[in-house]
Every structure is written in C-alpha cells, then in structure tokens.
Design brief:
15 helices, TIM Barrel, 16 strands, 415 residues, alpha/beta, globular, binds zinc ion
Length: 415
Amino acid sequence: MINDGYLIVSGSRIEEVGKTPFAGDRSEFTATVNLKANVLLPGLVNTHGHAAMTLLRGYADDLPLSEWLEARIWPIEDLMTAEDIKWGTWLAIWEMIASGTTTFTDMYFHEDQVAQAVEDSGMRAVLSRGMIGFAPKGEQTAMESRDFVQRWNGAAGGRITTLLGPHAAYTCPPEYLREIVVPLAQELNVPLQIHLCETRYEVEQSIAQYGVTPVQHLVNCGVFAVPTLAAHCVHVSDHDIDLLKANGVRIAHNPQSNLKLGSGIAPLSKLRSAGLTIGLGTDGAASNNDLDMWEEIRLAATLHKGTAEDPVLVSACEALELGTAGGAQALFLEQGLGTLVPGAPADFIVVDYHKPYYYPRHDVTAHLVYSAKSADVIDVVVDGRQLMRNGEYLTLDVEQIVYETNRCASRLFGS
Ligand SMILES: [Zn+2]
C-alpha cells in the first residue's frame, strides 16, 4: 500500500513503483497521468466463467438446478452458433472492463470466437474449449481442444494462454479422463480446469457410482498428474481437502453462483488453512447474474464470517488478494500478475475515490472491499495498453455490442 505513490510503465510491464515526489527524469516519459486522489490497484482476476452465457442472463432464474440446466440452459446452448458466442463474449468483455476485471478464464464452445474477442479487445484470458466425454462428443471436443490450444496458446502477445477444459467428472467418464484428457494435456503441456464438487447431488452420485468422492475419483483417474484448477469445491470433506492440497490443485471459489443455484457455501476458511491456492470467480451470467468481481470479493469477506459466526475470518486484505494475485496464481499466471511490482505485467485499474462511502479515509483496503461499487472503476490498463480511460471504452463499440446481442437473443429466444 502506497499513499501518494507513482507507477511507471514501460511497454507491457511495470517498470517502477515508488512514493512521490518522483526524483528521476520526466523528460523520458511519453505521457504522464495525474490520478489525483484516486486509487490505483491491480486489475481483478475472474477465475471461473462462461463468458457467452451473458446471452442467457435473466432467462432462467429461481429454478431447481436440474430444471434450470436440463430444461432451460442446455436447449438454448444447443442452438447457439459461433456468432452468438462472439457477441455474448463481447457483451461479457464490456461488462468486465467496465467493472475492472482485466483477466478472465473461460470454458465454453466455439472458443475461437472467445479468443478472437480477447485478442481484439485487449483483455487477458486463460481459455479452454469445454470437453464432454460421452460419445459422440468426446472425440470431437478432444480434437477441437487440441486445435484450439495449438492455435491460441501464447497468442495476442502472450495475453492468451490455454487449458484443457474437461467439464466435470459426471460428464467425462473415467476412461475418457484417463486415456484422452490427461495424455492430451501432457502432450500439449497445458493445465486443466474442471467443475468439482459443486453440489451435494454430484458427491452422492459419485459415491453411488464409483464408491468414492469426486475428488478421490479424479485422483484415481490420474487427473491431478496434470496441474488442475477446480471450480467450486463446495462439498468437500476434510480428506478431500487433504487430497487437493497434496496434489497442488488450485481452487476457483464462486460464492454468488453457489448461493443463487442453492448449491451451498464452499468451506473457504478450511481451504485457505490447508494452504491451497485460491481465486474468486463469478461463473456464467446465467447463474450470478453479473460478472462483477467486487461482489465476489465482498462476499468472500462477509459470507464466511456469517456462517462461522466469526468476524475475523477472511479479512478485507485477504479477500482483495483472492480477487487479484490469488486469482492469477490459480490461473497459472505466475509472473507477478495481480501485483504492482517492477517486472509484473502492467494490468491495473483506477477507482474514482471521491464518493460519499469513501469518507472518512480510515482504511483504503476496507473501503475497496466493503464499500466500493464496480461503477467507480474509471481506468483500465492491460499489458500496458489502456482499454478504458475515464469511463470511455477504447477497444470496444458499445452500440454495436448492444445491437448484435439483441439480434442474437431475438433469434435464440424468439422474442
Ligand atoms: Zn461453470
């Protein structure tokens, strides 16, 4: 934390961070910006989501999980074309830039469209084609995943990295995980992301079918031989947590999606105590219903205090760290991303700090976590490039996104 500080960017990297007054030679700078009393912090990192599900926002709410998924979400997803994924992703990127998210992950289909939107918008992302293991989709999604990784890993000047995205243990049979997914990840040298222990039903089904919890099942299938990011981990036993830790599994904690779908509350404190690497995520906009990482950070800092009746659990500082550096580590982006230190990628945001709920100025971290609104984000920089300046978008066309997403939604929903 620096009061009255300065930050120097050179190309795509942070070159220097210090306390004013700056004593060096200003004549070398191509531009200087006076941020006045506003707050500069690392960009937020969203560790779980399905960007194009923005098109399904508000379409199916307050339903039992199976009805939500099987009767409402999947039938629409079957109709979604590459064009829908493109514009749904642009809508998501607009929302993420507006609220200060600079890095996100994705697991969906027509993933080339997602990657192209990331490249064109200037965002940073860790992308995967979702893999369903049942025939006839299993081979097809594996082939598409291979093509996708080969085409996009390290693309957009390194802003895009890739993963394999086996959807879940209940959609990928053991032999598919063991014989297709793991060898492919090892061949391509990329990590995995997978949904894990999201619901109690998922755990009960795994025990009924395989005699073990989903975590133990993935261990038995050899999945964790590959570095893995697991989304949710709501219903995990103490033994599961030991296994996750022993295998270096990283966690995406999605408190709001888990609450809205009635899935439960992940044992964040236990996961943290075990020393696991954890980030925060929104999940898709059909189950949240927005991509506002400030809400996830605040929930991480309040929800677990409430359930444990313990006001010292997950401090504001710890919650903000989960939403920035923790998320970067969870996404296997370990070159200082999510921090403001020399050599780290120049991914940062500026919050307009002149709002009634930021006075008096006792503690900036507490204000950011407990009081901030996502609309207070006014500047967004990714990889040294400004994507939003004083609320103005520099890499996207809002009018076009609105027009095209309305057109896609009309076709999908017949409205
Ligand atoms: Zn998900």
